[in-house]
Amino acid sequence: MIILKSMKNYAAKVIVSLRDDVKDTQGLSVDKMLKRLNIEENANFRTGKFYSFKISAQNLDSAKEKLNFICSEILSNKVVEKYEIIDLKELK
Amino acid sequence: MIILKSMKNYAAKVIVSLRDDVKDTQGLSVDKMLKRLNIEENANFRTGKFYSFKISAQNLDSAKEKLNFICSEILSNKVVEKYEIIDLKELK
Amino acid sequence: MSSSVDENLKKEIEKRLKRTPNELENHLFEALWSEHCGYLHSKKQLKKLNFKGSLLPDENSGGVKIGNHGVFFKVESHNHPCAIEPYQGAATGIGGIIRDILALNARPVALLNSLKFAYPDTKETKHIINGVTKGISDYGNSCGISDIAGEVIFDECYKDLPLVNVMAAGLAPLDKVKLSAFREDLEVVLLGSATGLDGVGGAAFASKKLAKNKNEEKIHVQIGDPFVKKLLIEATLEILDLDGVVSCQDCGAAGLLSSTSEMAYKGKCSFELELDKVHLAQKNIEPWQIMLSETQERMVFALKKEALPEVFKIAQKYELEASCIGRTFKGSNYIIKKDSKILSSTPLDVLCNPYCYDLEPVFESDEIKYLKDKKCELFMDIETAVEKMASSYNLVSRKWFYEQWDYLVGGRSYVAPESTGVGVLKFEEENCFVAFCMDTNPLMCALDPYLGSQNTLLESYRNLVSSGFEPLGFTNCLNFASPKGDDTKYSFVKSIEGLRDCSLKLNTPVVSGNVSFYNEAKDKKIYPSVTVGMCGFLDINKPVIKSGFAMQDEIYLIGKMINKNSNVGGSLYQKELLDFLGGSVDEPDFELEDILKKTIFSLRDKKILKSAVDVSKGGILGTLFRVLCASNIGFVGKLINEENADDKLKLKLLFGEIQTRYIISTQNKKELESYFVENNIPYLYLGKCIGDKIKFDGYEFELAKLREKYLNLLQNALED
Amino acid sequence: MKAAVVVFLGTNCQVETKAALEAYGFETKYVDSNTKNLDEFDCIFLSGGFSYGDYLRSGRIAKFTPLVESLYSYVEKQRGVIAGICNGFQILCEAHLLPGALIENDCLKFVCKNTPLELDFNGTKKKINLPVAHREGKYFYRGDVSEFVFLRYLKNPNGSKDNIAGLYDNKKRIMGLMPHPERAFFNENFGFDGREIFKIIKDELKRG
Ligand SMILES: Nc1ncnc2c1ncn2[C@@H]1O[C@H](COP(=O)(O)OP(=O)(O)O)[C@@H](O)[C@H]1O
Ligand SMILES: [Mg+2]
Known about the structure:
The complex is a heterotetramer, with 2 copies of chain A, 1 copy of chain C and 1 copy of chain D. Chain A contains 2 helices and 3 strands. By secondary structure, chain A is an alpha+beta fold. Chain A has a domain at 8-22 and 48-90: Mth169, Chain: A (2-Layer Sandwich). Helices cover 37% and strands 24% of the residues of chain C. Chain C has a domain at 545-720: PurM-like C-terminal domain (Phosphoribosyl-aminoimidazole Synthetase, Chain A, domain 2). In chain C, a hairpin with a 2-residue loop joins strand 11 (333-338) and strand 12. The model of chain C has no long low-confidence stretch (mean pLDDT 94). Chain D has one domain: Class I glutamine amidotransferase (GATase) domain (Rossmann fold, 3-Layer(aba) Sandwich), CATH 3.40.50. Chain D contains 4 helices and 11 strands. Classes of the chains: A alpha+beta, C alpha+beta, D alpha/beta. At the A-B interface, helix 1, strand 2 and helix 2 of A face strand 1, helix 1, strand 2 and helix 2 of B. Adenosine-5'-diphosphate is lined by residues 46, 49, 58, 60, 62, 74, 76, 100, 252-253, 476, 478, 510, 512-515 of chain C.
């Protein structure tokens, strides 16, 4: 990979979680525990995976494009998962 | 648990991740892959878990307190993990 | 110097060094002269053990010889790390013991574990149990090494002081085995994960009592990466097969320092380490931290210069980092350099040969004497007792644990867990099976460390025998409280003598082991916990004997007979039913042990024997109960062999633990009994497998009810 | 007949898989993740293990290797049969060579045990027992795959939808299953039912 002089670095934060029609077993198990411990009756937990990383790109638009590629192709599988970009900003 | 009439519901979002001084083995392995695939030279991947859920409390302050308790005692293991509350707001 | 090296040691170091150590050297000594690395309190005692007949007992792991192969096995404790961070503690324990086997160029093929926890009824204990179990699962499964056997013991003495002893076994053709000693004029290569701050100071940490506040200990947490370990295993085995690669050692406690200094000391040559060459995970890491880091997944190799390119090629193939960190030459010093400046140069015989304490003479304290003299006058009615014992955490199925561990990966596993008392591997290279098991008997060791450790070793021995295996050798892990305590000194010394004498009598050597002291916290210590891991041999053309019963099986007890005068001190039923610990521990009968072994083997060869199981925890009824539940079969018979026994005596006869006994089954009553008579074997007919109830001496229990508990008790406790 | 046994970094069931194939008369060869052409093989076996540590999700990272690239062209050419066992199944799903996905078991734990299954092949149903060993083996899909399912759990160990334990692609040239047939092959203690699976593959190949 040739890193061009004009490349900038961006910090990305992403959440990957199960699609709504896929049962979130981990979430259900935390719900149950909170109920048993008398902490929360119906917490309705949803769980996901959080990733933070750096990407290099020429500008914000191409960073976004790259990030979407990484999220859809590498970090998630659209059959069961969805992703949400919660942050993307240039690193100074 | 007695649910008081005056209880309000709050939506919470939390990220639990490894403390900075704890090696993120999954992250290191993804770094390597991104490098191998010529996608990113040094992505500095960090991984964590994301939770969204509902808590009931009398007011925002006690919601915060409860949330901190859930995060530190149930969702994270403070020996190796830290947590970050990324959102807490009342549900209408 | 840091506070954890005491003043006397400090003086000793200065005397031998003939100068004051510098800052860096203080750290080196603190690590190498720690209990964990230096065996300060145990070294003199361990020399008493019987190593005769073992293979390479001075290497990273010893073993036994089978044909042209070495079978290497060793146990390691990761108690302190598991108390702080159960998941990583257990994972890195597995990682560590795998490396000790691997260093010999033996492919690790099996894992075992011996776990001790408090009863699983508090949040803290459940956290520890779940974490340890998952740590073993995620690490061992992912490395592709099957977890074939082990034990779990519950006792309140392990509250906040869990014991996690893990064992690994590996195989290597004898002519391929590599040793750890350096030779002169070799390049030294470090392979594997980049050195970081994880686990810095772990050795010193494991050499003292646990602090009250867990968070104080956080810097010590080592982080395991099973995927990298898997790569490291494959890469190491390829590297060790190269010409020109001379020696190898793992980086365990006290990391790079401990491994390279030991290799140099053993090899009687100097070693010069260049810190700038070590591949690091982070900047700003101090020289002493590089030396002491316990970053996982690293191996050290010494090799001829010509072999370097090949080694780096293999590293690259497995996507592992490697660096050439120094060289060896004629001399006797350990030298650390950075930016071509010498930071430290110390004689190896000072660094690697720490001061050793004498534990002897030792005395039996009044407290132990008092315990031994106590008589158990308590009792309860038999119905309640049976129900209670049947739902003892210590007797029910371990399914919840082992189903989380892959016991089949690797293609060698031969039996399912709980179908015999041992884990069995197919070893076609030598046309045989090898079996392994692990045992501990803390209650007996608490009352009588000498007999307790003998009985522990014999329990392993009987596990092998009841499965048809000839015992070959054993490893051990000595888990004790602080060696400064008089009781601990006493029980440590007596345990070692017990192991030695028993091993001599059985003609079965110790091949390797580990010592873990300081398993105590404020006001609290563990029972002396001598853990034994044993290995046995069986011709591949002979059947492995199972413990399960079938319908119509006739059940017999062979060996010593229990009666009202038997010594049953340390029996589980006293502790679990009556909350009593005391009395004398039963002595084994070595001559009879041998006769019983021959009996079982010859009944097998005559095809008269259907199944066999050693009588251990829970005595006759405890053992029967476990096999009946596992086999899902009822029983009718007579177990109480004294007239007019009251409840106190009945409890003893049913649940009392004495030595040298097996329960066996047959479908051929006549031939079996005539064999017993002809050969003068002490036996007792117990009854027959029939129906769906357990019936004896007028008592009757629904099997289904007991079995429900047997199968699900632990799951219900741990997942709730 | 020639079979390839794929070994990714982290794969660990290749030895048993190879032995089982050879016992079934296949000529076998290990191939690694960099293999770009698979045309010499009649059958490709993706065996169990933890490819690339199963980081992110089981089978995910293996998807980005030249070998999986070459699987796509192998399928396109309709060269032979592809079979994925356990981690191999996960990889095939992640690579979208089979429909659906495998996610974390309902019990949230690794499960290693012998399980009863119903094998349904070419209209004949049969009860068999095979060991499973996985943490992410719960099968999820949308739509209707029932006609491609050849293996169902009789006692669901992981929460798989419709008890699915193994299925084909719509051309019946790619098959995936979570249980380990190679572990029920050589030893009476774990049974010999794994042979049924290898037989199916062999029959598929004969069918051409
Ligand atoms: N209780 C014991 N019985 C027999 N050998 C032991 C015992 N404890 C330690 N050893 C032996 O002492 C040597 C050093 O052990 P250790 O420092 O634990 O090795 P490592 O650092 O490689 O884990 C090994 O050969 C080990 O087998
Ligand atoms: Mg070692």
